[in-house]
Specification:
It is built from 17 helices and twelve strands. It is of the alpha/beta class.
């Protein structure tokens, strides 16, 4: 049996998901958990598209059949790795010919329960856009660079709060040093997909904690509507002395190579100024990581203060702390949160 289902149907009763789009489409963005079994390679898809535009639909379809026919057994073998015994769901870009032909091929070869997502990946993206445009209950965790905000976000999650580690999803810590030790960043599209996949499991009646970020986290961008709501939300700001934060950053980047640290300093060279950059390079060569961290924070603290100007001052609640202790600082924040509810 082949049945058409909505994206909502799939999310409420998920089955192994096969994305039959080309590898390039899949890499740009895909539904989390989907497995790519491409009907066509990137070059094959480009060729078919060119023929479709310049010649005719029928000729493009025939070329598509010619490309797909030799791979029919491979399609079956790959899907069986994902769904050996049970139902399977198929999708392409918009639930058109690619997913329909693929589903029929599976059904003809022993797959009894095959679903095709109506609207395909495009319906998933519409779902995301609708979601971000809704009003969300947000609580923002703020603080200067090096305040240990990410460990607090993780602690909030461990305590049962709804919290999202945006930097983990973006594979970047947000600063010029943020790519050090991280995996390659996803595309903005895939970041949005992964973010929604976490968020959709939350209770909309309860608030979501997010770390204060600029619109860009590395080269990844936050959804515009979500970012606008973040700027208007209540912010609990951890106020921790610079020297304590500099010590924390030294520990955080202790495993980084000197070359990576130098490259990161050069990224903010215009902001630091030539003399400070030269001094930082010398300190790195001398192993004086604390001095480099303290100097870099002079720039980041100024930048963060400028960012705070876009927040409503009445909604920025300062919380003084004297250490980077995630458990202690989380307790301070939750106490203040409960007091102001």
């Amino acid at each position: 049996m082949i049945q058409n289902i909505s994206i909502h149907d799939y999310l409420s009763l998920p089955a192994p998901l096969i994305d039959v789009r080309s590898p390039g489409e899949f890499a740009q963005g895909h539904i989390p958990g989907a497995v790519n079994v491409p009907l066509f390679s990137n070059d094959e898809r480009a060729h078919i598209g060119t023929v479709y535009v310049r010649r005719s639909r029928d000729e493009a379809m025939q070329i598509g059949y010619n490309y797909a026919n030799p791979k029919k057994q491979w399609f079956i073998d790959e899907v069986r790795k994902v769904a050996p015994d049970g139902p399977v769901t198929i999708h392409c870009w918009r639930g058109g010919m690619r997913s329909r032909l693929f589903a029929e091929h599976l059904h003809e070869n022993g797959f009894q329960n095959v679903s095709v997502i109506t609207g395909g990946y495009k319906s998933w993206r519409r779902l995301l856009n609708d979601h971000w445009n809704k009003q969300h209950q947000l609580i923002i965790l703020g603080g200067y660079t090096g305040s240990g905000k990410t460990p607090v976000i993780k602690m909030l999650t461990a305590l049962g709060q709804q919290a999202v580690d945006l930097e983990a999803l973006a594979c970047h810590k947000g600063s010029a040093f943020g790519a050090i030790g991280q995996k390659p960043q996803p595309t903005t599209e895939q970041f949005e997909n992964d973010l929604y996949n976490v968020w959709r499991h939350f209770d909309p009646a309860l608030p979501v904690w997010l770390e204060d970020e600029s619109r860009n986290i590395g080269h990844v961008q936050l959804p515009a509507s979500l970012f606008s709501q973040m700027r208007n939300a209540v912010t609990f700001f951890l106020d921790i002395p610079r020297n304590v934060r500099a010590e924390y950053l030294v520990q955080d980047y202790a495993a980084a190579s000197i070359d990576d640290l130098k490259d990161s300093v050069l990224k903010i060279s215009k902001r630091l100024g030539g003399q400070n950059v030269n001094q930082a390079m010398q300190w790195l060569d001398d192993g004086k990581l604390y001095d480099v961290a303290y100097l870099s924070l002079s720039y980041y603290d100024k930048a963060y203060r400028r960012g705070l100007e876009f927040h409503d001052n009445k909604k920025v609640l300062m919380i003084s702390a004297d250490s980077i202790d995630a458990e202690k600082n989380t307790e301070l924040i939750l106490q203040e949160y409960e007091r102001r509810k």
